[in-house]
Write a structure and sequence with these properties.
Elements lengths: L7 E3 L2 E6 L8 E4 L10 H9 L4 E4 L13 H14 L5 E6 L1 H12 L4 E7 L19 H9 L10 H11 L2 H16 L13 E6 L7 H10 L3 E6 L6 H4 L1 H15 L11
Parallel strand pairs: 3-4, 3-5, 5-6, 6-7, 7-8
Antiparallel strand pairs: 1-2, 2-4
Helix pairs in contact: 1-9, 2-3, 4-5
Length: 268
């Protein structure tokens, strides 16, 4: 799906960058495995209009060399993006697989992560979305899988179904999707979460069928400095389905935790 923002190119990365330069840490938005930059349109608008410099990189889920098509490969990509653009320390905001990548970044490079915002993050467990069994050209099967992402199945639009149908009918991309899904299932972070002490906000759809509410509770119990907010009548992608709620909760958290600090951690 298209985004209303101008896509920038630098250092081999494609990304959106909006908002004023400031002493606040930059906010980096990481979409999920079947997501794209359009998932963050409302969040980019909200945070950038409230004084945060916001970056949303395209994650090359379907374009990496096959041997690097795994969660660690995406972490390498985000790590390089952050350092090439000199964004560290920054806030990482991730949905689904993007949240998983954010957690691994916080474990790998804790000094580069000022705070975390996670929505429907993988890394503990996910309910199988059927990515390994998506039948080619079976439109209704794909529509049903897409609808499970949301509380309101109306969000599984014809446009979204068409995009997913094109994806699973592209052999190269379908193979990478399968490899990434298997990697996300195997590269769990459950036992390592206690090492993360960055301020963390968990924003969860109360009706998430893919990473159900018990996953959010487990993240909160295992992370050292986490708070949890549920959004009612909301599924796996709150920034799409309940953008106003998601943005208000996220903005309040960021203003309170990093909004009064410069990027080198000195109070303003």
């Amino acid at each position: 799906m298209s985004t209303p923002f101008v896509l920038k190119e630098a250092h081999g990365f494609s990304f959106v960058a909006e908002g004023p330069e400031s002493d606040r840490p930059a906010v980096v938005l990481l979409h999920g495995m079947l997501g794209d930059l359009s998932n963050w349109t409302s969040t980019i608008e909200c945070l950038s209009q409230n004084g945060f410099r916001v970056y949303a990189p395209e994650l090359p889920v379907y374009d990496m060399p096959m041997r690097k098509t795994n969660v660690d490969g995406l972490v390498d990509h985000v790590d390089e993006f952050i350092h090439q653009l000199d964004l560290a320390p920054c806030v990482l905001v991730g949905n689904s697989l993007g949240g998983h990548v954010a957690l691994l970044m916080a474990l790998r490079q804790p000094e580069d992560v000022a705070a975390l915002v996670l929505a429907g993050a993988s890394g503990i467990y996910e309910v199988d979305m059927g990515t390994s069994t998506m039948r080619r050209r079976d439109r209704e099967f794909i529509r049903e899988r897409a609808a499970r992402t949301f509380y309101d199945p109306a969000h599984a639009t014809d446009e979204l179904v068409d995009e997913m149908l094109a994806l699973v009918n592209n052999r190269s991309r379908a193979l990478r999707l399968l490899r990434m899904a298997r990697s996300a299932q195997s590269e769990t972070v459950t036992e390592s979460l206690k090492r993360i002490d960055s301020p963390t906000l968990l924003v969860w759809g109360a009706d998430d069928q893919i990473t159900p509410p018990d996953v959010a509770h487990e993240f909160q119990s295992r992370l050292g400095n986490a708070e949890l907010e549920f959004i009612d009548k909301c599924g796996h992608a709150p920034m799409i389905e309940r953008p106003q709620n998601f943005n208000e909760i996220t903005l309040e958290f960021l203003t309170r935790t990093v909004g009064q600090f410069s990027s080198n951690g000195v109070s303003q």
